[in-house]
Amino acid sequence: MATEELEVVTTMESSEEQKEEQQRQRQQRKHVLKAQASVATVARQQAVCVRRAYKHYGASKNPLVVLDGLNMTVPKGSIYGLLGASGCGKTTLLSCIVGRRRLNSGDIWVLGGRPGSKGSGVPGPRIGYMPQDISLYVEFSIRETFFYFGWINGMKTEEIDEKVEFFCKFLQLPPRSRFVKNLSGGQQRRVSLAAAMIHTPELLILDEPTVGVDPVLRQNIWEYLIDLSNNSKTTIIITTHYIDETRQADMIGLMRGGKFLAEEPPPQLLRNHGCETLEEVFLKLSKLQNQGKRRRSSYMLEIMGPPTPEEGPSAFDTTSEISGEYGDNVSLSSKDAHPADSAEMSDLPPEKGEKWSMMDYILCLSPHRMKAAVWKDFLWMWRNVPIMMFITLLPVVQMILFCLTIGRDPKYLHMAYVNDEMNFTTNCMPTNGCEYNLLSCRYLESLRLHKIVMERYEDEDQALEAVEKGYVWGSIYFSPNYSQSLQERIENARYASDLTVNESSVIVQMDMSNQQIGYLLRRHLYTSYIDFAKQLLTDCNLSTRLAEIPVRFLEPVYGGDYLDFINFAAPGVILTIIFFLSLALTAAAMILEAKEGLMERALVLGMTPPELLFSHVITQLVVTTVQTIMVLVFAFAVFDIICTGSLLWVIIITMLTGICGMCFGFVVSSLCESEITATYFAMGSFLPILMLCGICWPVEGMHYLLRYISYILPLTFSTESMRAVLARGWDISEPVVYHGFIATVCWIIVFLFGSIIILKFKKG
């Protein structure tokens, strides 16, 4: 009985504890929901709202933390001064705000939506962005720079002209026709500032706008920004090294080590900390941060009020609620909320529209942005005429060098001969007609017609010594009875003795260390003998077929009897030249833009990756067209490369290959951060493509494993396609031909989509 009563008491006590725990959890959920609702209200009312922002670089095992649970609130129509030393995370935070970098965790709302969401306008024309670097095209004039940024943001020419007049006067800029590269550093920064403000954006983000600016002009700029904030309701986020000038801001965020030390209006900061300058406040808070001291955020107290007695003093001490150091904003976490309360928590501001799909990126091409990008590329080409002439003429020079150096038969090769039919002091005098005297001289004369230099030696040992020392490529020996034995062999072949056969033969010993020259000389020795024998048989009224081996080669179906290597290699060489020069031009142009910050600035203003790539395609297609025409003219009109098919298909496949190289250049520039890396990438791909695509040697001669690899490379099918058109005269109806066209188009699509995906997701 006592045991049962004890169990009842224990059960009652356990039930009471469970009720208290449930009550405590309800209070915490209530607190979190209250905070969440407050965040929802703040996010809707503010221009920028950042919560629990965490960002790191490097491997997750050993990360470099740049933003550590940071919170930021920028009211609409205010000037927000973001202060912090170099490396504290300011630039990374701004990049996340404009949608060019992604947080590892946390939330950001900008102008009521998520950066990067469809319909949010961020990145886009709702933002004006001045990066820390100049990020201007130095070959452009001031007026052209304003036109470029104005057109990107959809402004009309008349509106831009008015802005040019205003900013040139207000910012004390030199004449509008002055090139940016001829401006001083301070003047360039002022042009960059004007480019960010030219379209009067809703949110203006300025990274170090007043560096190197005259103090009077700096104050004028601040007065203009205050006027924008008050009258145009433009929200301005500004970073600066001049801390005290931000006293004119409405709100200041002091940032250190990826966290906010404070986020309050300047007068309140000075009053709360008993300091005369903001620099003193920054120093004081930094020391407190080093000591690890924490206090309740004034922002938390403002939006939620003090904790109730029921909530207890630990109401704000739950995990992630106060994430920063001294003075940091509250970071409100929803992870403790109960699933049943999700309906209440859905009060958070939604994204404006849906996320961008790949087809949205491709189909949503803006005419005014494309106009600005294409105009910019053509203007850059016009301002760099020497570079463009070099780029245009380089493939022609390469084609000329190829045609003059590769594939032609070597001439004037030296051969030694020993002719025992004659005394060494007697010159060889070939005979004509049906004469069987000094037939060795007639054969030597036939060899000379093939531009072989014959050097006479006294005996065989001397001739072989000359071959061994590399003076000649081979030696020829004629026996003393060569002519008589050859006559007997021709007239009485059936009964000729072995001695007669041996003495009627030309004895040749070759240096075959160079296979090409060795085989060429063998071919000349053979064809010269056939020519010599046919001429002799003709003079003696005998059938010339007696001089041939009993294998008859009729007229070739395609090609000629003796095609040189140049006609085999020319299709692949032409395509390789166009492919890799297009790659180099595209990669260099885009890497330059990315390195100088020009691409990043355009993307912040709303330029999409397809617009960026297609603008380069349009402008560089003109260069590729000129290069193709000039290369083909020199190949066919000047150097007589054989073309038996339609020149139209040759032009089309060459142009497609140029576009393919261009798209490969997009991939290279998207993957590589510097010119050196891109150069290594291009060089590393050049030799495999050259060796494996059947350009220098038939694919059928490769190892069977490499043969399969060659079929997935971009120039294999196109080379065979062009070779079939040139040598066989086939048209597009033949599989070998259209396979090359299909493969090239497929590679263009693969490279283009690949570069778009890389650019779309290449955010830190």
The major sheet is characterized as: 6 strands, mixed
Proportion in helices: 40-55%
What is the spatial order of strands in the main beta sheet? 5-6-7-3-8-9
Write down the overall geometry.
elongated
Beta-strand content bin:
5-15%
- Note the quaternary state here: single chain
Radius of gyration: 41 Å
* Classification by helices and strands: alpha/beta
- How many DSSP H or I helices? 26
Would you tell me the overall average pLDDT?
A: 81
How would you describe what is shown here?
- This protein has 26 helices and 13 strands.
- Mean pLDDT is 81; it is low at 294-354.
- 53% of the residues lie in helices and 11% in strands.
- The chain is elongated and about 125 Å long.
- The chain has 764 residues and is of the alpha/beta class.
- Helix 21 (609-638) crosses helix 22 (647-671).
Reconstruct the topology from this structure:
Layout (H helix, E strand, L loop, with lengths): L1 H44 E12 L6 E12 L3 E5 L6 H8 L7 E6 L16 E4 L11 H11 L4 H14 L14 H13 L5 E5 L7 H17 L3 E5 L11 E6 L2 E6 L1 H8 L4 H13 L7 H7 L37 H4 L12 H6 L3 H17 L1 H21 L7 E7 L19 H11 L2 E5 L3 H9 L5 E5 L3 H10 L6 H6 L3 E4 L4 H25 L25 H31 L2 H7 L4 H30 L8 H25 L3 H18 L11 H7 L5 H13 L6 H27 L3
Summarize the structure.
This protein is an alpha/beta fold and 764 residues long. The chain is built from 26 helices and 13 strands.
